[in-house]
Design a protein that fits this description.
Elements lengths: L1 H15 L2 H18 L8 H12 L4 H12 L7 E8 L5 E8 L2 H13 L4 E2 L9 E9 L4 H10 L6 E5 L2 E6 L4 H10 L7 E8 L7 H15 L4 E6 L6
Antiparallel strand pairs: 1-2, 1-3, 2-8, 4-6, 4-7, 5-6
Helix pairs in contact: 2-3, 2-4, 5-8
Length: about 240
């Protein structure tokens, strides 16, 4: 389980190092979910979830407000939500989620990022079945036992509650995300180190040193694409 948190930390650290890119992606996602439903997080659970995630990445309020106001203004800009699945070296599997206003452009760019770096794009369903959609919530200042007790008192289920280095990480079913967070907030916990619904691999693979650079280049190429929101993989990033 530790490798799951390690991969999440690695991905989050990478995004933290590219603040302008992550802010732009959150702005796009906030606009999309606000336009699809009500532009009010109290009545739009999808928007509320995105704003909770944005908080853990320190997205400025101005960017959030701008995206919501754009949705309120009835902008005719539309985005398609797409998922691509592909393969890298040594049995590595990759999932790419995108928001795009040009499907053909995005498909071409994603395919090129795979093929130019030793990977190949698969068909729908070729990779997804090897990952589990999982809510991941991290916090500090409590032990795993204390968090378990809090969730049990609130009658909230979690798949795992583990202490990972200096944080407690709660893994839960996606539909338990808000219940877990509400229970923790009711207990006085207001800051979270991570608050995501992510795709976690059921099994992880190791890549030999001679292939590692190429795999990392492929992942970087995918994450550098403007239309890409998230990239998930099953490579063990533990040192």
């Amino acid at each position: 389980m530790g490798r799951k948190w390690n991969n999440i930390k690695e991905k989050k650290a990478s995004k933290d190092a590219n603040t302008s890119r992550i802010y732009a992606r959150f702005g796009r996602e906030i606009y999309v979910v606000a336009k699809q439903g009500e532009p009010d997080p109290e009545s739009n659970q999808a928007l509320k979830f995105v704003l909770e995630r944005a908080k853990t990445y320190n997205v400025p309020k101005a960017i959030i407000d701008r995206a919501i106001e754009k949705a309120k203004g009835g902008s005719d800009e539309n985005y398609d939500e797409l998922r691509y699945e592909g393969f890298g070296p040594n049995g590595s599997m990759v999932i790419v989620d995108a928001l795009t206003n040009n499907v053909n452009r995005t498909a071409s760019e994603v395919r090129a990022a795979f093929s130019k770096n030793g990977g190949n794009l698969g068909v729908a369903g070729s990779v997804n079945y090897m990952f589990d959609e999982t809510a991941v919530i991290g916090l500090t200042g409590k032990t795993a036992e204390e968090v378990l007790e809090l969730l049990m008192e609130a009658d909230v289920d979690a798949r795992d509650i583990l202490e990972e280095e200096d944080a407690v990480i709660v893994y839960a079913a996606p539909d338990q995300f808000h219940a877990v967070q509400t229970a923790l907030k009711d207990a006085g916990i207001t800051e979270f180190t991570v608050a995501e619904i992510t795709m976690l691999a059921q099994n992880y693979v190791e890549i030999p040193a001679e292939s590692e650079a190429q795999f990392n280049k492929m992942i970087d190429a995918l994450e550098d694409l403007d239309d890409v929101q998230q990239v998930y993989h099953n490579v063990d990033s533990e040192e």
